[in-house]
Amino acid sequence: MSYFCHIERHEAINMNNGRTITRSAYDVLELARQDAEMYLNPYVTPEHVLFQVESSGIFKHILEHNSMNPFFFRERLGLFLSSLSSVQLTPEYAPRISDSLRFAIEMAIEDVAAGNDNPIGVPQLLIGISQLKDSLAGYLLRKYPEVIQDARVPITMHSQ
Q1: Which of 6, 21, 7 is nearest to 117 (CA)?
Q2: What are the structural domains, with CATH classification, of the chain?
Q3: Which terminus of the chain is less hemmed in, N or C, by CB atoms within 10 Å?
């Protein structure tokens, strides 16, 4: 099942599985997909997603408040992402969602279903990612849970 969907011009976007996702959460997933595609990574990973959330500037004041270098997440994630394998560019190439990111999205869906019928947002994506045990992104979110609480700042697509 694909979790990516066609961009529509309204706040909540219908996903292929019948759920809705906020514009910010969709933009994060789409930017992560574009990032994986740009570097010819075979999969979109939770680290791609967290890298895009970090790029939005959400983490900066949290990290500064905790007396950490605001570039800590970016550096760690950047090193990880640069170590990922790449594939040869072919007309059929498109990065697929990794099993770990699929699991994180399913956890986000469960989190929303357990509460109410609100759309899936960035905080729910981060909660799902934080549950990943074998993931740098999951580790970082468990180590700094304040990031999830502060992920309510809108994330917008950057025109290139």
Answers
A1: 21
A2: 20-149 (1.10.1780.10)
A3: C
